Amino acid sequence: MARPATSRLDEEALAALPPVPDFVTALRKGAFEEFLALPIPSQETEEWRYTDLSDLDLSFAPFAPGGAARNLDEVPGEILEAAGVVGDRAGLQIQRNSEVMVTHLDPELAAKGVIFTDLDRAALEHPDLVEPNLHALVPTSRTKFTALHGAFRTGGTFLYVPPAVTVELPLQTLTYLDADGAAVFPHTLIVAGEDAEVTFIDRFASPDLSRALSDAIVEIYAGPASRVRYVSIQEWGDGVVHLGIQRTRVGRDADFRSLAVGFGASLARAEAESVLAEPGGTSEMLGVFFADGTQHFDHRSEQDHRAPSCTSDLLYKGALRDRSRGVYSGWVHVRPGAQKTDAMQTSRTILLSEGAFGRAIPNLEIEANDVRCGHAASVGPVEDETLFYLMSRGIPRAEAERLIVFGFFNEVLDRVRLQEVRESVSAAIEAELARGA
Amino acid sequence: MTTAVTVATLEIRDLHAEVEGKEILKGIDLVVHQGETHALMGPNGSGKSTLANVLMGRPGYTVTAGEGRFKGEDVLGLTADERARRGLFLAMQYPVEVPGVSVVNFLRTAYQSVKGGDVSALAFRKHMKEKMSLLGVEDSMVNRYLNQGFSGGEKKRNEILQLAVLEPEIAILDETDSGLDIDSLKQVATGVQQLIGPNLGVLLITHYQRILNYITPDFVHVMMGGRIVKSGGKELAMELEEKGYEGIRSELGLEKGAGEE
Ligand SMILES: Nc1ncnc2c1ncn2[C@@H]1O[C@H](COP(=O)(O)OP(=O)(O)OP(=O)(O)O)[C@@H](O)[C@H]1O
Ligand SMILES: [Mg+2]
Fold first, then answer.
1. B79 contacts in A (CB within 8 Å)?
2. Structure ipTM over 0.90, yes or no
3. Is pTM beyond 0.80 here?
């Protein structure tokens, strides 16, 4: 296991990070100041009401080496295994701890101008694409943790798809963490040009650790009439605190679809936001969550309609077992002038144990009059009737519950069109449900 | 040399059960052997489904007296899955929709649970296909989500497919003929008929004589007010058809039970 050199988030550690282009250095400096100035988010505020980080000890090592590999054959087996079912992929990048080990991209796509690489490297080689976009959707000043991220981030993924280029197969990044006591700052920056099409899978995995921090940011620019699919599969081990923000700017007539799968971490707070910035955009946000033991999930979503004639749909499904907690809060904002908005938000949570706690808080804020908006939320146990039906066929209770949850998640998967994505996610779900067996 | 043939038996003795503090079953005695077909008839609300549910272990019912033995073992304390694994089956009056779980996935999980051990996907497919062709079930049905959006007829046929695949020793069929049009009824009834034989004992709950045109019961029982008030051979069904439940009541000098129609 790699051992971090220092466990301080201080100026010295900042100075010791690998060198980056000037604009990133400036960003780091500014973010570090913000980090020092900002308080740990308080539970007194609405946004952090359900997650208490006041006792979070910030003595994490900000840089943990991961090493490099010349090709996938040099990547250790356990890391490849964590990459999950990798069927056909147009590209695969593996980051271990703070460093990207290896990146592979189909040369035909590279020839078409697709860029898929380490974010630091992209900052050096493609500053024109990185500088205007990095932290433009999620500013470092947003919270103490986004500031921390801005200051100490290394590695990360940059994906650029030029206008009118279609990438048929998914690209994938695996971020693997095995440095106990480390903080990692996964960052995915996706820029899709006009009429481009791409599917990207972000996978996060680690063994169980005594403590670690994953402070993650995803920024997605879906250009006009682009079709962008973003899938995240979070399978951190126990001991990891995961704080993630995903924010997408959906351009004119763009079609953005995301699927968030959350299984891991001791505490996971995941925010997913779609800004419908120009007319005709579509955003679909799907989510599948399963918590057990004493896991704590705090999921938040925002469908922000700023332009007319956009459609957004959100469907989150979660199952909570043992003494886990899951809170979902969702916002639909329809800004003045965003007429002909069609927005729907649905969250369903199944409680599999008496000790599990689930809550759903839907919010609609509508400032236009010609709109169609709706929300539906439910939290409750598996229906006795369904359980009895399956058990009456000889299926033991635990297995019957698994089957019900599998079916419950399957309804979300049915909305995923790409076979390769469905297979990966389905395998991850089956593995997760079998784990507690 | 002689071979001892042991036949699975469901023995119900003086069974009393309540729902929400109200006594519904008021002393049921009934014995069903593997290989026999029993028809259980009775007016709405007389307790037929309650009996079926109590025997299968549906939560919400309290047995207050009596016993239910299957193959000599008192099964009333067992969970539903344990009873099913011992060879009991209940085709439900109202099958439940299970979203996202395909019939084939469900059937394979159930089959593995009942048969124990690992059954290869291939072996299971073959077994299921055999039963499907026996019952005339088309492929499309097993790939759909369990009962979701199924018509009344499809739901009932699906129950019979489960019965065929799981091969229990005693099956209770709760109004498997209700809500079916003539063609569906014929399909379901001939399906059940195919399965009836020395290895299967059936307790067929029904309101109608018409299913008995396809399935000839060895015994007919009439249930009223939570009791079996009369038993006989297949001619009892004809008698019921003529006289109605009112006729039986006046013959036996019975009052209409509470909640009974
Ligand atoms: N879960 C329940 N909760 C409350 N009452 C119940 C429940 N199950 C059965 N009962 C009551 O028990 C009595 C018998 O019902 P049951 O369903 O067993 O009748 P049945 O003979 O199957 O009638 P049907 O022919 O209409 O199916 C009725 O009065 C019914 O209201
Ligand atoms: Mg009934």
1. 391, 397
2. yes
3. yes
